Amino acid sequence: xxxxxxxxxxxxxxxxxxxxxxxxxxxxxxxxxxxxxxxxxxxxxxxxxxxxxxxxxxxxxxxxxxxxxxxxxxxxxxxxxxxxxxxxxxxxxxxxxxxxxxxxxxxxxxxxxxxxxxxxxxxxxxxxxxxxxxxxxxxxxxxxxxxxxxxxxxxxxxxxxxxxxxxxxxxxxxxxxxxxxxxxxxxxxxxxxxxxxxxxxxxxxxxxxxxxxxxxxxxxxxxxxxxxxxxxxxxxxxxxxxxxxxxxxxxxxxxxxxxxxxxxxxxxxxxxxxxxxxxxxxxxxxxxxxxxxxxxxxxxxxxxxxxxxxxxxxxxxxxxxxxxxxxxxxxxxxxxxxxxxxxxxxxxxxxxxxxxxxxxxxxxxxxxxxxxxxxxxxxxxxxxxxxxxxxxxxxxxxxxxxxxxxxxxxxxxxxxxxxxxxxxxxxxxxxxxxxxxxxxxxxxxxxxxxxxxxxxxxxxxxxxxxxxxxxxxxxxxxxxxxxxxxxxxxxxxx
Length: 494
Fold this sequence. Notes:
Number of strands: 0
Strand content: under 5%
Number of helices: 20
Order of helices and strands: HHHHHHHHHHHHHHHHHHHH
Radius of gyration: 22 Å
Structural class: mainly alpha
Largest sheet: none
Distance between the termini: 10 Å
């Protein structure tokens, strides 16, 4: 299978993974939002800040180091596995022992038992990091998609049942742990690799430099994605955080079903061609153009239908989330434009550059959120948009140093998707005024149908080559009954 076909097939299965995962997640959240209070969501979100931080440290960047490394040996895999497991167990014990201290510092007594139980996720996740890296390295995205879908569905069912039985906030805790346990089980079933009882310090040290920079970047990225949650939870309380989290949930959904789909496949793909500068540059243009193709209409469309979507999915009690959601969509637009840059830097081995830019971003967000939080969750959302927009040029400059793209050529990649998206927004807004008297579900179905139709026609009229390229890649990605990807010319592609 050519690299182009492998990448296209990877996008297909990753899209299935992300879209299926997000569909199952949003259905679960929609049900739980009608059974639980905003405070319950806020409490678990506050606990997740700490578990996500320590989970990054438990992995130590070993999974990405395995994917990126060209000369991989079995000893590398064994060393990475035992390091992840050992550190995961250590961090579980540490967080469990300090949960009451953390809860006291945050003046949230109910946080302590939740945090102590969720600390188990650190040990659980360490059991499957290497298996996931091996499958990603081998472009086995179909297996990863199946694992993700099974895990999220089972976890969601368990969480909803627990909520119906009156478990309250614990239904969210049980949902999280069930998801991770099922994920570990399915990954071990899918992967033939098994760890051996050995640990090579020399092989561990070979992975460590790349892994350390990955950890640094991810810690800073987590700070960027969780500082707003922490500030809101600390200064405004768990209920305000619950409203913010639901708004942010739909933003993450849009990111995960658009640019993250492509980004997951981009890392191993760019890693394979990292020594061919011209090929990297061509792929950079095409990838960022295709990302804009799906992200621009998604985020702009959500701005228009956010009120109806929020009321339908979560109920009228969550209306304070609507304005926050609409503001955050503009952060999503900037993220869609910028999403590929950190991945390219990682694939080309410039992980330290990512750490520097992310560190500056983390400081900027900390200052912005500290100032904005006194005016409420909407002001925090506006501050997030501002910082993301101000930092985007730094990411592009770093990639430009390596890839040498032309600014004019890059800018042209966004013109057609944006023009078609603006036409779509006009049409959807006009139709929205005509269907306000019908139920929420028919409204949303009509608006989405209108948006998809108008955007598709607009793109075809504005940039027919781009529309044809998207159709070609879709045909290449979707497997035939014989298990091979389709190609319009019957060839492998390049």
